[in-house]
Amino acid sequence: MLDECPMTEDCTGSDRDPRLCLLRPDDCEFAPADGEAALVFETLEVPTPDGSAEAAHRGRGRSHRAYAPLTCGEGLTMGEHLDAAASALEALDAESLVGLYVDGFVFEDTAAGLVISTREELAAYFKALFSMPDVGFSEVSFFRCGNRGAGTWLWSGTNPLGDPYSVRGASVFDLVEGGIRREAVFYDPRPARG
After folding, report:
1. pLDDT per residue over 13-42, tens digit each?
2. Which three-class secondary structure state does DSSP give residue 89?
3. CA 34 to chain centre
4. pTM, rounded to two decimals
5. Residue 183 forms beta bridges with which residues?
6. Contact, 111 vs 64, CB < 8 A?
7. Pick from 99, 101, 38, 85: nearest CA to 66
C-alpha cells in the first residue's frame, strides 16, 4: 500500500512487505501524510479449541489500519479510475480503456501468453476482442486498496462453432498517479475457442 513502510523494526506491528504495511492499535503512533487516507478493517475473532471467544492468535478480532494514496492523478481517485475502466469494458470502448493506462504500462493476458506494453498493441488487442461475434462484458466489479486493485468480470459471446459461451475472469491492477501501470487478466479461454 505504501512505497516505503514508515514503521521501524521497533514497531511490533510492522510488516516488512511494503504492500502490506499495516499498523495495529497500540503498536505505534502514526498518522497518514498529506494525500493519503486511512483504511480501517476488522478481522474476525476465531474461537479457540476450548470454545472461548478469545482471539486464536495476535491480530485476530482487532482493528487494523493501513495508509494509502487517495488519488490516481488528473482529479480521479483510484476508485473512480477503476470505475471508468469497468464502464469502458462494459461499453466495449477500446479508446477509453487504452486512455486509462500510463506511459510504460504492462498489460498481461495470462491465458493467451501476451504481454503488451504499447498503446498501439493494446488498442489492437481490445479492438480484436470487442469485434468477436456477440461479445460482451458484464458483471464487472473492480475495487481498490491503496495502489492495488482487482476485480471480476463475465465475458460472453459466440465461439467459432456457433455456440454461446460465458467465461468468468479476473483482473489484478497496479495503480500509479495518472492511471493503470500494470494489469494482469486471468480466465479460461477454452469455451471462447470452441
Report:
1. 444 444 444 433 333 444 444 444 444 433
2. helix
3. 23
4. 0.62
5. 107, 173
6. no
7. 38
